[in-house]
Amino acid sequence: MDADIAVRATNVSKIYDLRNKDNQHRTDSSRFYALKDVSFEVKKGDVVGILGTNGSGKSTLSLLLSGISDIDSGTIEINGEQSLVAINTGLNNQLTGLENIKVKGALLGLKKKRIEEITQDVINFAEIGDFLYQPVKKYSSGMKSRLGFAISLALNPDIFIVDEALSVGDRGFAKKCMDRMMQLRDDEGKTIFFISHSLDQVKNFCTTGMWIEGGSLVEMGPVNEVAGHYSEYVEKMNAMKGPEKRKFLDEKFRKRLLPKEEKKSWWKRLVS
Ligand SMILES: Nc1ncnc2c1ncn2[C@@H]1O[C@H](COP(=O)(O)OP(=O)(O)OP(=O)(O)O)[C@@H](O)[C@H]1O
């Protein structure tokens, strides 16, 4: 992969099993594309805003980009270290904040001295006081976001993946994070993927827009253009009336189901 490329995704698909309301597998068409055949390239230093309505596949993509979740088909090539900042990922709920920092450092194979430096950076940035010594399960979502964000910043990865993490923090902390992310963008040339439902935030912060809808990549390009097309789509969808909207959403959902033949061959592959 060329040295100026940070991430290359080629025909990436992620499939989930659907369960019915009794938590049983459905008898037919029970497999569903969270992402389907997604391909793109992102240059180093690019700041990509990922847009898409609820359930379109944005968080799934963030989990694949950060290497937390496995891909079902296709490839993702990454140039550099990546780190995910999300509300509910990456922290062990049973451990205290402090233990989480140390475990993360140890898992990355860092030396004791480096872990101590990182711990101090996290304490300074997160400003969660004595909560540092409480198990994370006692944290509010805003506090988890503070800790998660501070850890990712301190680890100083080449690629940041920020999934809605700012939406739960209070205004002061969200501003502090945005200021720091602007520094990462402008002074350090980091590659950033930024998922937010705030279109203004995406337009102000990002250079490239990536619109994912129904598990597929619809458009990627200059952020203002992509955000404009996405807004038009959302407006059209919002203008739909009850039955029309239900039909539209149902068709969108059905397009993501794996065909039965494909399901059969999957089972055959499993038993053969
Ligand atoms: N672990 C899972 N098991 C089964 N289905 C899942 C799982 N995680 C996500 N999905 C489904 O995959 C689809 C994509 O979900 P994802 O969380 O990526 O969407 P999103 O674009 O981030 O949505 P939102 O804007 O609501 O956060 C959704 O239909 C979701 O229900």
From TrEMBL:
The keyword Nucleotide-binding applies. Pfam families: ABC_tran. The keyword ATP-binding applies. GO terms for cellular component: membrane. This is ABC transporter domain-containing protein. Belongs to the ABC transporter superfamily. The lineage of its organism: Bacteria, Bacillati, Bacillota, Erysipelotrichia, Erysipelotrichales. Keywords: ATP-binding, Nucleotide-binding, Transport. One of its GO terms (molecular function) is ATP binding. PROSITE patterns: ABC_TRANSPORTER_1 (PS00211), ABC_TRANSPORTER_2 (PS50893). Gene3D superfamilies: P-loop containing nucleotide triphosphate hydrolases (3.40.50.300). It comes from Faecalibaculum rodentium. SUPFAM superfamilies: P-loop containing nucleoside triphosphate hydrolases. Residues 7-239 form the ABC transporter domain.
